Amino acid sequence: MRRLLVRDLAQVASPGGGTAPLRGRALADLEVVEDAYVLCAGDRIEAVGRMRDLGPLPDDVAELDGRGLSAVPGLVDCHTHACFAGDRVEEFALRAGGASYEELHAAGGGIFATVRATRAAGEEGLRTAVRRHRAWMLRSGTTTWEAKSGYGLDRETELAQLRVIRSEAGVPTWLGAHAVPPEHPDADAYLDFALEEVLPEAASLAVAADVFLERGAFDAAQARRFLVACQRAGLALRLHGDQFTESGAIPLAVELGARSVDHLEATGPAGVAALARSDVAGVLLPASALFLDRPMPPARALVDAGAAIALATDFNPGSAFTESMPLVLCLAATQLHLSPAEALSAATVNAAHVLGCADDVGRLARGYAADVVLVDAPDWRHLAYHLAGDVVRIVIRGGTVAWSRAAY
Ligand code: NIG
Ligand code: FE
C-alpha cells in the first residue's frame, strides 16, 4: 500500500476525543503533539505521534519534510453556494455606495442575478465554474466541501447543479427553496412545482435539503411544508435562518430534527437557549456578516450555553465572496470571540458532523481520511492569526499531496 510519512512537524493539532459534535468546554480540547509525524497509508491515517516514538519504516515509504510546519485536519466547509456562474461585482459596488442586500434582492437583483447567469451557463459551464471554485477552496485548506443548488430554481438547472456538485466530489444540498423565481406567481405556487417536479430526482442526488426562511423569501409555514416533504423523501434538513430577522427557523428546526440552522446573525437569547437544548447545530458564517456589514452571530453565548456550533464560509457571489476557511477562523477569533482551538474544532469535526461524515473526516487520528493541512508556521494557530495570509503551505487529500505552495 502507498504510504506517506510527514516527518519532523513542529506540531500536530487535532480535536480531541472520539465523539461529534463537540460542545461547551470540549470544543477547546485539542490534542497537540510537538515534534511529531503523521503517517498516511492509502487514503487513511495510519498513525500520529512523536518523532522519538517512530519506529523504523520500510524504504518505499514516501517522506515529506515537515520542519517548521504544523499540521491540522483538512478543513471542512459545511456551507457553500459554490455552484454558481457569473459574478455580482456590480452589486458589490452598489452596496459600497449604500444599497442594501435586501433591497437589491427585492428589486430582482441579488440572488436572481445569479439565477439568470446560472441558468444560462449549462451543465458544462457549471462544471467549469465548480472546478475553479473547488481549486480555490483546496488551496485554502478545504478538503471536504458542501455546496448547495438554489441558483437554478427550475427543474433542469437545479438537477444539473446537484449532478455537478456530486460528480466533483462535493456534498450536495438541494436548496430548492432559496427564492421564488419570477415565472411563479407566489411562494406556494413555486413550492407546488418544486415538490412535485424536482424533489423526486433531487432526493436521489442530494444528501440534504435547505430553505431560506426569511422575510422576502419563505415564511415558516412554507418552510415547514418544504422540509416535511424533503424529510419524507429521505433528505437531512438544513435551514438558512435568523439572517436578518427571527422568523421561526430555530423552533422549526428543533421540531423537525434538522441537522443545522445556518446564519443566526439575528438570534436572541431565547433562540440561543432553544438551540443549546437541542441536537440541531448552529452553523456560523462570520464572513457573510462581515461582507454584508451585518451584526455577528452570538457565537460565544451559543458555545457557553452548550450548543453545537460549526463554522463555514457561505461562499457565494453575493453575500460572502470568499472561499477561505482560514479567514473564517480569523473572524471567529476576532469577531466571534472563540479561541483558535474552539474555531478549529468548529471548522473540522463539528462541520463534518453537520455533513454526516464525522466518522470519516475532521480529525487527525488512526482510521480517519488522510486529509491534512500543513500550516506555514511552527504554531498551528497561525492558521487563524494570519489575517488573509498565505498560511496554507501543503494540502494532503486522501493520502496524496493535492496542492502545495512554493517555499519562499
Ligand atoms: O447564505 N441568504 C441566502 N442565501 C445566501 C446568499 C445567496 C446570494 O446572495 O447569492 C446566503 O447568504
Ligand atoms: Fe448560505
Could you describe the largest sheet, including whether it forms a barrel? Answer: 8 strands, mixed
The radius of gyration is 21 Å
Shape assignment: globular
Spatial separation of the terminal alpha carbons? 33 Å
Q: Helical content, roughly?
A: 25-40%
List segments where confidence is low: pLDDT < 50 over at least 5 consecutive residues.
Answer: none
- How many beta strands in the DSSP annotation? 16
> Helix tally?
14
- How much is the average pLDDT? 97
How much of the sequence is in beta strands? 15-25%
Series of H and E elements? EEEEEEHHHEHEHEHEHEHEHHEHHHEHEE
Structural class: alpha/beta
- Molecules bound to protein: N-(iminomethyl)-L-glutamic acid, fe (iii) ion
What is the element layout, followed by pairings?
Layout: E1 3-15, E2 30-41, E3 44-50, E4 62-65, E5 70-73, E6 75-77, H1 89-96, H2 101-106, H3 111-139, E7 142-148, H4 155-167, E8 171-177, H5 187-205, E9 208-212, H6 220-232, E10 236-241, H7 249-256, E11 260-263, H8 269-276, E12 281-284, H9 286-291, H10 299-305, E13 309-311, H11 325-334, H12 340-346, H13 349-354, E14 372-375, H14 382-385, E15 392-397, E16 400-404
Parallel strand pairs: 1-4, 1-5, 6-7, 7-8, 8-9, 9-10, 10-11, 11-12, 12-13
Antiparallel strand pairs: 1-2, 2-3, 5-14, 14-15, 15-16
The site of fe (iii) ion (FE) has 4 residues, from loops.
